[in-house]
From TrEMBL, chains A, B:
PANTHER family: HTH-TYPE TRANSCRIPTIONAL REGULATOR RUTR, TRANSCRIPTIONAL REGULATORY PROTEIN. Residues 29-48 bind DNA. SUPFAM superfamilies: Homeodomain-like, Tetracyclin repressor-like, C-terminal domain. Residues 6-66 form the HTH tetR-type domain. Keywords: DNA-binding, Transcription, Transcription regulation. It holds the Pfam family TetR_C_27. This is TetR family transcriptional regulator. The keyword Transcription applies. GO terms for molecular function: DNA-binding transcription factor activity; transcription cis-regulatory region binding.
Amino acid sequence: MATTETLTAERILAATEEVLRRHGPAKATVVDVARALGVSHGTVYRHFRTKAALREAVTERWLDRTSQSLAGLVTEDRDAGARLRDWFTALFTAKRHKAGDDPQLFATYQVLIGENSAVVERHIADLTGQLAGIVGDGVRRGTFAPVDPAATARAVFDATGRFHDPHYAHEWEQPGIEGEFGAVVDLVLRGLRA
Amino acid sequence: MATTETLTAERILAATEEVLRRHGPAKATVVDVARALGVSHGTVYRHFRTKAALREAVTERWLDRTSQSLAGLVTEDRDAGARLRDWFTALFTAKRHKAGDDPQLFATYQVLIGENSAVVERHIADLTGQLAGIVGDGVRRGTFAPVDPAATARAVFDATGRFHDPHYAHEWEQPGIEGEFGAVVDLVLRGLRA
DNA sequence: CAGATGACAGATATTGAAATCTGTCATCTG
DNA sequence: CAGATGACAGATTTCAATATCTGTCATCTG
């Protein structure tokens, strides 16, 4: 079980995700993680002060993978409206795949997200920060009405919640959802234009 | 305990709400409801086929109280934009009071809502129906862009979810929330205007 | 001696036997 | 005889005992 490799935080996090996937959030123990790594559980506690800290780090890693996949769109040199639409489409698609491809793991992360509101807040700050970048661009170029980018980014993020908040994941496979997504994005974009 | 009065469905529902308030959703039993009414539990089953049906009816009653309090705004003869803003403000205020004034009971109803998705769907259909009325008026009078009232009502309802979906109730007492509500409503109204 | 170990105490979770609840229905009552 | 009752069977919940886990730390090892 790779006992020769150095025990890094990343290896522990990967093992923890695997244990969470196998056992679910209720039954995944630090002892399980240690066993998966071939070390004693005391060793895991050398890298993460508590089980809660370990779960928090796994949650952060999971959310950051989504943020990073979107970051590229912010700096592209294109119409802000189109970029905003693409950004939300990418976010919706990414979340929908996370939910649909491995429902087991997604349910697990929903529990972790409920436990780690501080991490979620940071994630939302990340995402609205990216949005503010696009909105600011649009305002500067005159595509969008002159608004405060940060406050407007938050409003736009809130308005699209049904298509990225995991609370609504169970609706993401319903038939009309694409159209409803489009309707909200259209409405929001009309509201932004100069 | 009012053993003389006729046993109506409404009396059973009121007693059930009281039992739910006292004991919470997990411990409220049909036997408790019967005891509160001074009848045997078999008698309760004469009016409601199952415990689930009883809880569903209580949930529907609770949601309908909100719908009815808003219905008046739909038929008023005023600017559609102003009515739409007032309607959402009234909805947000009503829900915020339900959540803030009796958190115990509100938490109980959140559980009931989770159990009764069909009732919730009907409630949402009620509310978006009211919205479609206002949107349709705005379109007819040329205040709003020419859109499909039903689809747009749904988009507008989705876009404001953070301020009426009970899932977000814990955020409704936070400091900046009024401003965030206003920002989303402003954005949506700008998106609707002709 | 830096890093890993595993025994340990207190906290948390599991389990299965006992208690309670749900839903039915034969019987009762006004 | 319309409507209420409460005994009952099966389902669900509670509770206390038992088992497992978390987090620490004195000890070990390369």
